[in-house]
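=== RUN LOG ===
request id: a7f3
mode: sequence -> structure
chains: 1
length: 290
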Amino acid sequence: MNVIETSKLTKYYGKARGIIDISFQVEEGEVFGFIGPNGAGKSTSIRLLLSLIYPTGGSAKIFGKDVIKEGPEIRQDIGYLPSEIFYYERMKVIDLLKYSASFYKKDTTERMHELAEYMELDLNRRIEDLSYGNKKKVGIVQGLLHSPRLLLLDEPTLGLDPLMQRKFFSLIRQENARGVTVFFSSHILSEVQRLCSRVGIIKEGRIIEISDIRTLQQNNYKRIEVTVRDLPPDYFALPGVTNLEATNGGVRFFFKGDIDGIVARISALDLIDVTIEEPTLEEIFMHYYE
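=== RESULT ===
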């Protein structure tokens, strides 16, 4: 079953581009990464899924229901963490969370306290006294307190220190293990690589690639570093070789093509060492953007 389905979803702000013809599906229980630089259209896509803004064209469904016609019902089962957190400053954290909980048809008291303890959040402090990182923790608890079936996370670790980021990722894995579907939007590619099974890459409002992360790495460039005793000039000036640069005792480069051919060419050298690695998601991503 697909939890999210979009078909040619498009949004213009006047004449300014938001997103154009976005079509993708997210399966139940999946952790789907949505990556692109700031301004690519990630937040616009999430706001359209939540009906916080309305599309210029196309459609979107969540749980098989139209996000506009059945938005209030759908949102009962969605947890949303926006990239920027703004709250009523004078409220205590506990009062804000109780107010949020009042919108759901279930008792969330126990869950709220469990999450606050896990995220090391003091419920009795006023919002105005919190650091940005602690306000982000409030957002995490708020997004999860009603045990949603779908999590929409927009740059969720912004403002969290490294220790809290690790706890947050552990929490999301726990949620996913109990069947929660996660839509994870980020421009921090190492986060997506750690958490997601499949990824969509968005560039200037359009999706340019959807693939599982392993396939994306395997079908892409290999990162190769060769250390040799004597390297003939232009030995690796070959089709498929890019980013060729000299190192202390050899060369490093990216290669895309027949791996047997490049390995045979490397093995003909008087080798000291050779390393062939998968590229990081960041290196793949930069390839799409260059």
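=== NOTES ===
DSSP finds ten helices and 14 strands in the chain.
Residues 98 and 109 are 8 Å apart (CA to CA).
=== END ===
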